[in-house]
Write a structure and sequence with these properties.
Layout: H1 2-27, H2 35-56, H3 62-76, H4 79-91, H5 95-123
């Protein structure tokens, strides 16, 4: 039951962070490119790579992983919004931005996980 409550609390935090970050970042850019969604997915991937690797090395407690990894990162990051926004860009004729969104998001999120993992491995070597 404790893990469930931690995931729920983290999910609430992540959802609020996603909303605020998306609106704040997108308001600073006068373009159709979904910078807000891109930002939350990039940050969430970096953090999740760090947390999961840290947990496997014993440096991040299971409760912290439930709260921050599963809960917060799960609600902060958003594949469905990424997919919808990409589809919407293509549908509106902004095909360059649609393709750029896919390529940049995949490269950045995979890079973020890798960087987070690298930092965790440096902190908690085997």
């Amino acid at each position: 039951m404790t893990a469930l409550l931690l995931v729920a609390a983290g999910g609430g935090l992540g959802a609020v962070l996603r909303f605020v970050t998306d609106r704040t970042v997108q308001a600073k850019h006068d373009t159709v490119f979904p910078w807000g969604t891109f930002a939350v997915n990039a940050v969430g991937s970096l953090l999740l790579g760090f947390l999961v690797t840290g947990a496997t090395r014993g440096g991040v407690p299971a409760d912290a992983l439930a709260l921050l990894g599963t809960g917060m990162c799960g609600a902060l990051t958003t594949y469905s919004t990424f997919a919808y926004e990409t589809f919407r860009l293509a549908e509106q004729g902004a095909r360059f931005f649609a393709v750029a969104n896919v390529l940049a998001t995949v490269a950045t999120t995979l890079g973020g996980v890798s960087l987070g993992r690298t930092v965790a491995l440096a902190l908690w070597p085997s």
